[in-house]
Write a structure and sequence with these properties.
Protein name: RNA helicase
Domain Helicase ATP-binding: 111-278
Shape: elongated
EC number: 3.6.4.13
Biased composition (Basic residues): 24-37
CATH topology of the largest domain: Rossmann fold
CATH superfamily of the largest domain: P-loop containing nucleotide triphosphate hydrolases
Largest sheet: 8 strands, mixed
CATH class of the largest domain: Alpha Beta
Keywords: ATP-binding, Helicase, Hydrolase, mRNA processing, mRNA splicing, Nucleotide-binding
Strand order of the largest sheet: 4-3-5-2-6-7-1-8
Strand content: 5-15%
Oligomer: single chain
């Protein structure tokens, strides 16, 4: 009996050791995959910067009116105005995507509003491209006006500020941290060359406490204003004083919202113009569980596994409440799907928090 008990314990310990080793192996693989993805992205961006384009294309950083009035000579139209080197092939492939966004059609209207008003409101539905494109339009406009100030775009969350800055740096074909950067708590990824900066509303509010006139900025864009964070509301009070009185001649303010509640902001800022941009809509089918779930975590993992096993190939985005649940879900999904890879195909589960 004792020998049998000891044998069972030994088998259980051996199984636990094997399971722990497998868990550690998967964790190492995830870290290696994330590192490789990060390095590949950086290498691709850096190698493409010096790669000449296949053919000359319109340079969006030249003035819209100036381009119509005069044709540039030689290869000037292919040069990045910030780096003074030819745009990369990656830039042109991304540009075609940018031009398909609904907000891109409003570029000339945005230029006109910037030229004639200090403040305006932009209502852009989800998917319109306002967060990535409008700051670039403003940067182009300010450059054409030979303004030396920085364009700042606030975000309510740190992840949004950093991820959008990385995307915009790619779209503008510059290195993140130079002409395009971000500032969040404990992380300032900008330098003396920065012309467009994404930051959290809290960080801009801290700057306003040190420099009440926000003198280094030529334009401030408040994005996701409909979320009405405390920092955003306090910022709006500060900015109203600046654009209406203290810096009425040299500071632009754009309030961007995803809802028509923007009319409240319009009233607060004494009825500036309001520009509406439609969004890109995709077919969405909403499905509900037949009865309330006792354990939402178990239900979420079970649903993700079911979709992978029974639906066509694609990606699954699973929202959970925090780091611990996300890591647990990664382990659970791997443990349930790894044995089925031969029949259902490989699975790659990546945590994001």
């Amino acid at each position: 009996g004792n020998e049998m008990h000891a044998l069972n314990n030994g088998s259980r310990i051996e199984e636990e050791n094997i399971e722990n080793d497998e868990r550690k192996r998967r964790k190492r693989e995830r870290k290696e995959l994330k590192r490789k993805l990060r390095n590949d992205s950086t290498a691709e961006l850096n190698s493409d910067i010096l790669e000449p384009p296949t053919k000359p294309k319109y340079n969006p950083y030249l003035s819209h009116l100036e381009t119509q009035q005069q044709q540039p000579h030689g290869d000037q139209r292919t040069l990045n105005p910030f780096t003074q080197i030819p745009f990369s092939s990656t830039y042109y492939s991304i540009l075609s995507v940018r031009e398909s966004l609904p907000v891109y059609e409003k570029k000339s209207e945005i230029f006109e509003l910037l030229n004639s008003h200090n403040v305006f409101i932009l209502v852009g539905e989800t998917g319109s491209g306002k967060t990535t494109q409008v700051p670039q339009f403003v940067t182009e406009f300010m450059r054409n006006q030979q303004s030396k100030g920085v364009v700042a775009c606030t975000q309510p969350r740190r992840v949004a500020a950093t991820s959008v800055a990385k995307r915009v740096a790619q779209e503008m074909d510059v290195t993140l941290g130079s002409h395009v950067g971000y500032t969040i708590r404990f992380d300032d990824c900008t330098d003396s060359q920065t012309v467009l900066k994404y930051c959290t509303d809290g960080m801009l509010l801290r700057e306003a406490m040190i420099d009440p006139n926000l003198s280094r900025y030529s334009c401030i864009i408040i994005d996701e204003a409909h979320e009405r964070t405390l920092s955003t509301d306090v910022l709006m009070g500060t900015l109203k004083e600046l654009v209406c009185k203290t810096r009425s001649n040299d500071l632009k303010l754009i309030i961007m919202s995803a809802t028509l509640d923007a009319k409240k902001f319009q009233k607060y800022f004494e009825n500036p113009p309001l520009l509406s941009v439609s969004g890109r809509m995709f077919p969405v089918e909403i499905m509900y569980s037949e009865s309330p779930e006792v354990d939402y975590f178990e239900a979420a993992v079970r649903t993700a596994v079911y979709i992978h096993l029974n639906e066509k190939a694609g990606d699954i985005l699973l929202f959970l409440t925090g780091e611990e649940e996300i890591e647990d879900a990664v382990e659970r999904i791997y443990s349930e799907l790894t044995p089925t890879e031969e029949s259902s195909g490989p699975v790659c589960v990546l945590p994001l928090y």
